[in-house]
Amino acid sequence: MHICFIGEFPYQNKPVGGVSVFLKTLADALHERGHVVSIISFSSAFEGWEPRGNYPIYRVHPSKWPFLNFIRIARNINRTLRSINSGKPIDVVETAEAGLCFLRKMEGVKYVVRLHGGHHFFAKGLNQKIKWWSAYQEKRSLQKADSIIGVSQFVLSSTLEYYPFLKARNCRVIPNPIDAKRFIGISDARTIPGSILFWGAYAEKKGIFELLEAYRLLKLEKPEISLHLYGRDILSRQTGKSNLQQMKNFVASNKLENVEIHGNVDNALLPSIIAEAEIVVLPSHLEAMPVAWLEAMAMAKPFVAGETGPGPEIISPFKNGLLCNPHTPADIAAKILFMLENKEKANEMGHQARKTVEDLYTIEKLADRNIAFYAGLKATDVASSK
Q1: CA-CA distance, 29 to 31, in Å (whole number)?
Q2: Which member of 68, 186, 273, 302 has the lowest number of beta carbons within 10 Å of its beta carbon?
Q3: What is the pLDDT of residue 46?
Q4: Exposure pattern of 118-141 as b/e (b: 16+ CB <10 Å)?
Q5: What is the Cα–Cα distance from 152 to 288, expressed in whole angstroms?
Q6: CA distances from 16 to 199, 214, 265 (A)
């Protein structure tokens, strides 16, 4: 089969988010299994075909025009799709929630939207204002989709609630996969006792400010602990100011010691960073299916995650991790304290977390599920033509 993905894809080993990691992991696995893969992605550095050994990547400059830039992007993507299809007919085009909005569908091609958490999902889930332009693009895109994949049951159920017409589509839950061979437990000798690790965007929805307050509370009882933060700066939705600066101000005003705030990190470096942590804490307010959670679990680390969203789908409390109320710093602190004071149980949960990933979330298992889903789309198309 020939699968063409449109979406975020890593560029020159620069730090990326979970969706980019997912896409590269799946694309590589499909290519290794003999399928043809094409990528249309974005880069502010240039526009055009990117030299790459495994499969072709076309980069679209995301902000080349000052006005009506979406027209240029849509034109380039449609033109590139036709070019790719003329060389080797495409079986499936896959994109995220709003990706089909301005695409012209080609005959014989199936169009799949994979739900990674769209505008309605986060706006409704976080009690934020719906933006009409974003909502318009998302709805129009979903109306064009032949099939829907949800990366968790939670994101699929929530999206079906917002867009009931999708219930007539072919909908399936296929979780995000990870390359668990990259995230395998490293010697415990690397672990820094009492170290707490967070990585991700410095956004309010990631629970970063609640985590800092939880750390302040914990310091009163456990002065020896340390906090290590990795991520990219995000402007506050409330103030429009740098969240990174607000984080630094909080640390300084509360005279918190042993807090290290780093910039964003290349995913290739994550295993060695996770290896040094005693506990990983990612108290997101809302996620669709976070790759970062699976990476922490694959490293067999004691793990604390937010209980909202897909948390209960992934974490079974006191078995493979702990769930916290991400809006309540005292609860986050209590869950971290349990891990610190019950090391044997915490390590047991960490090892069970690794087993959970091996059983459910490896690319080896989930690549086959994706391939079977794509093949089913084409089989249905053939059957309906008879």
Answers
A1: 5
A2: 68
A3: 83
A4: bbbbbbebeeeeeeeeebebbbeb
A5: 6
A6: 12, 27, 8
Spatial distance between the Cα atoms of 184 and 235, rounded to a whole number of angstroms: 34
Average pLDDT over residues 197-206: 96
CA distance 124 to 126: 6
Average pLDDT over residues 155-175: 96
The Cα–Cα gap between 357 and 12 comes to 28
* Average pLDDT for 123-136: 94
- Cβ-in-10-Å burial (0-12, 13-18, 19+) of 210 comes to buried
Above 70 in pLDDT, residue 185?
no
The two most distant CA atoms of the chain are separated, in Å, by 73
Q: For the chain, what is the HEC assignment? A: CEEEEECCCCCCCCCCCHHHHHHHHHHHHHHHCCCEEEEEEECCCCCEEECCCCCCEEEECCCCCCCCHHHHHHHHHHHHHHHHHHHCCCCEEEECCCCCCCCCCCCCCEEEEEECCCHHHHHHHCCCCCCHHHHHHHHHHHHHCCEEEECCHHHHHHHHHHCHHHHHCEEEECCCCECCCCCCCCCHHHCCCCEEEEECCECHHHCHHHHHHHHHHHHHHCCCCEEEEECCECECCCCCCEHHHHHHHHHHHCCCCCEEEECCCCHHHHHHHHHCCCEEEECCCCCCCCHHHHHHHHCCCCEEEECCCCHHHHCCECCCEEEECCCCHHHHHHHHHHHHHCHHHHHHHHHHHHHHHHHHCEHHHHHHHHHHHHHHHHHHHHHHHC
Residue 74, both tokens = 């849509």
